[in-house]
Amino acid sequence: RQEATETTSRRRTVLGEDEKQRLWEKICDTILTHTRERFSFTNHLISAKLLQAEMFEQHCHTFPTGALNATVEAYPMLNKNKLKTELSLVYENPEFRSCC
Fold this sequence. Notes:
The protein is an all-alpha fold. It has a domain at 43-97. It has 7 helices and no strands. It has helices at residues 2-9, 17-39, 43-46, 56-61, 65-74, 80-92, 94-97. The model has no long low-confidence stretch (mean pLDDT 86). It comes from Nothobranchius furzeri (Turquoise killifish). This is Si:ch211-240b21.2.
């Protein structure tokens, strides 16, 4: 009970307008920094375009080179030529095209 009494008897610190402005700027800056960090790496999302079944027929005629390049850049451990060959086989296979 004594702790509760001490807590409720504390006075709030009144901030001046300059202090409030500085605090708001710091809060906004922190939020923006975290947002930029969270969304800065999105190249891996482009790789999903390579596996959109409804696009296989189109990819069969026009290979998605841009998406392949972005995927290999995001995942440098991938073998670009091998991945392109394997994806081309998937795109050309009617069984895979019918899965959408």
